[in-house]
Design brief:
The structure holds two protein chains of two kinds. Chain A has 14 helices and 14 strands. By secondary structure, chain A is α/β, with parallel strands linked by helices. Chain B has one domain. Chain B has a two-stranded antiparallel sheet. In chain B, helix 11 packs across helix 12. Classes of the chains: A alpha/beta, B mainly alpha.
Chain lengths: 392, 285
């Protein structure tokens, strides 16, 4: 009888201990909601975000500032502001996340601005690249880039190469128009002329006609912006097949030689010149550590602008957790984020205190072959660039 | 003048790419009256086979392409024999739902097996360069597409109109009961025609890959273009599809040279106008 009672008491104690222990462990973990496309045509962004975020935590020994990190992933599919808003509301109210990260598409990021403003939730944008996003809420920090940021140095470089006439050929949607406006305004400031501005419909498959127009315009270079994937490939192929390089029309772009698709271009990509903030071939110990960490997390992960955006985004979240001691305190976290300065895989970077956008070096790169791999070889650094889109 | 010639040449090349991708659907949807929205998926399978055989297995382009087309035909025949034949007598909506579902399955399968990246089919040196036309250059691959498109059009039209198989096919579609009473092997005819449609889709996927790069969502992305060509060309009319493809290709190219700010507006306005003018097909009164 005695042993029996003791057994019951023990069982009760044990179960009480269990029920007590688990919420405590949960309360200690810092919750980070990651918003991105995890299914559909853009799912590779989600995969890269996941590999980089988890790879970052693993590289810090599995904890950030002594806290466990609990990631909650939410799938937006594609550009879908209404769904994103619902998902984020759920994350804030039900899951009570401490931080938000991710966002591939501008409309999705814009849609959650009122929610994070009201709940004072620090939100790090890993990718979405329209300048105006960080103005929409005081709790946005961005670790990607904007088109103004990479286009202005490209225009300055073109002018320095004694180019007088340049054509812009951009895909006809938000970021494309941003690139066109930025190039035009900076290039004419430098004394050059944009002889023709071609806007290519977003559904274009045959780029031949546009490339013929570029050739006929008599320009010395074409500055282009295309959304990632198939259109990039189509444009580059048309550029080569119609002999533009031979005719002396220089290719100048930004994200067109993204590491994700680069190997698929084959030798057609050799010699393409771009101005961009991150190259997988950036030669630094930080970059090697980053590439190794995401590969370890997910062998299919690629070191490119999306994964480096997520990696640096996690660095910012890490520092915010350090500053707040793991408690939820939006204003204090943001105050810490505004003064951050560190060595990222892309080079030295800092968060601009006013715009909360990342200030970073922009590099002139050229596609070269190293071994049997195509890489974006950095030829020169234009030095630290702010977001010129917000300065206006 | 130069612009005019440019429009004509680029338009013809683009139209031929459209035709090569659409001709398979012109067989399955047009001739067999089967609403085959998985056409894009078959084209994707053909393209992926060719890409993997040439790039990963290092086969020669000229061997890999027929092999990929045969593989697509075999997949088409197998699906027809196992599943799709039960759908011939069902309503169009059932066919639409099933074939769209099939497309999603094939998209997910390719994504899982090969990954989301764009796939390239490496071209042999003969096709990789450009041909000098005097006043401009044209990619050599486009010449192959034009030749292949003409060849396919003639071969298909001849098969349907002149051969015994063509007569069987038309009989089987128009009145399968009577046809089978006359001793026509209906099942064989249907299966072979569907396999031929799939094979042509595969050919289109391979030859069109230069303009419509292969990736998992290929199966749905270009479906609208293909459906437009078949609808404007008229059900079952291969010559009609060819005419529609070239005409729409030239219109689309002209709008790119002259009014690119309008996007694809002229392409779809032309489609609407042509459908209003000749609802049964471009070459039918």
């Amino acid at each position: 009888m005695n042993t029996h009672r003791r057994a019951i008491a023990f069982a009760l104690l044990a179960s009480a201990g269990l029920t007590l222990a688990s919420p405590q462990a949960m309360a200690q973990a810092v919750k980070v909601g990651i918003i991105g496309p995890f299914s559909g045509p853009f799912a590779h962004y989600g995969t890269l975000f996941k590999a980089a975020a988890e790879g970052y935590v693993a590289s810090q020994g599995g904890k950030l500032a002594g806290k466990d990190i609990e990631f909650i992933y939410r799938d937006t599919g594609g550009p879908n502001p209404a769904l994103t808003k619902t998902l984020v509301q759920e994350l804030l109210v039900k899951d009570k996340v401490d931080y938000l990260g991710g966002f591939v598409f501008t409309p999705n990021a814009m849609a959650v601005a009122p929610l994070i403003q009201q709940s004072q939730t620090p939100t790090v944008v890993f990718n979405a690249a329209t300048s105006a996003i960080t103005e929409k809420s005081d709790y946005f920090v961005r670790t990607s880039y904007t088109l103004w940021q990479v286009t202005v140095p490209a225009a300055q470089w073109a002018a320095k190469q004694n180019m007088k006439k340049v054509v812009t050929a951009v895909t006809d949607y938000g970021p494309g128009i941003d690139a066109e406006t930025a190039f035009k305004s900076e290039f004419s400031k430098q004394g050059g002329t944009v002889v023709e501005s071609i806007r290519m419909p977003i559904a274009t498959t045959d780029f031949g006609p546009f490339v013929q127009r570029i050739k006929a315009s008599g320009a010395q270079a074409v500055y282009t912006f295309l959304p990632g994937g198939p259109p990039n490939l189509g444009f580059v192929k048309a550029y080569n097949e119609n002999g533009l390089a031979k005719a002396g029309v220089q290719f100048l772009g930004s994200a067109e030689t993204d590491e994700f698709d680069l190997q698929k271009f084959g030798d057609a990509a050799l010699g393409l010149t771009t101005a961009f903030h991150y190259s997988g071939a950036h030669d630094s110990p930080e970059n090697k550590k980053f590439a190794a960490a995401i590969k370890k997390q997910d062998p299919s992960a690629v070191a490119n602008y999306a994964s480096v955006g997520a990696w640096d985004g996690m660095y910012v979240i890490h520092q915010m957790i350090v500053a707040t001691g793991g408690k939820k305190d939006g204003p204090k976290a943001l105050a810490a984020a505004r003064s951050l300065k560190w060595e990222s895989p892309r080079g030295p970077v800092s968060i601009d205190a006013k715009t909360r956008h990342i200030t970073q070096n922009v590099y002139l790169r050229k596609v070269e072959k190293v071994g049997d791999q195509l890489v974006n070889k950095e030829l020169q650094s234009f030095g630290p660039q702010a977001d010129f889109g917000l300065e206006k | 003048m130069n612009t005019f010639l440019n429009i004509l040449i680029d338009g013809l090349a683009y139209g031929m790419v459209l035709f090569v991708i659409a001709v398979g659907l012109s067989v399955t949807l047009g001739l067999m009256r089967f609403v085959n929205l998985s056409h894009g998926a078959f084209a994707m399978v053909g393209g992926y086979c060719a890409a993997l055989l040439t790039r990963e297995a290092q086969w020669s382009f000229w061997v890999a392409v027929p092999a990929a087309i045969l593989a697509t035909a075999a997949l088409g025949a197998a699906l027809e024999a196992l599943v799709l034949r039960h759908l011939y007598r069902r309503k169009e909506l059932d066919q639409v739902l099933f074939t769209i579902g099939l497309s999603f399955v094939l998209i997910a399968t390719t994504n899982a097996l090969v990954g989301p990246q764009v796939q390239m089919i490496p071209l042999p040196p003969l096709l990789a360069g450009s041909v000098d036309l005097g006043f401009r250059t044209l990619p050599a691959q486009r010449l192959l597409v034009i030749v292949a498109g003409c060849g396919v059009a003639m071969l298909a039209a001849w098969t349907v109109a002149r051969t015994r198989f063509g007569i069987w096919l038309r009989a089987a579609v128009d009145h399968s009961g009577t046809a089978s009473a006359l001793g026509i092997p209906i099942r064989t005819v249907q299966c072979a025609s569907f396999a031929a449609g799939a094979a042509l889709a595969g050919l289109g996927g391979i030859l069109g890959a230069e303009l419509m790069p292969l990736e998992p969502f290929y199966a749905l992305k270009y479906l609208v273009l293909v459906l437009v060509v078949v609808a404007v060309g008229g059900m079952g009319s291969i010559a009609g599809s060819l005419a529609a493809a070239v005409l729409l290709g030239i219109i689309e190219t002209a709008s790119k040279y002259l009014a690119s700010d309008w996007g694809s507006l002229f392409f779809f306005v032309a489609m609407a106008a042509l459908l209003a003018w000749r609802p049964n097909g471009l070459l039918k009164r």
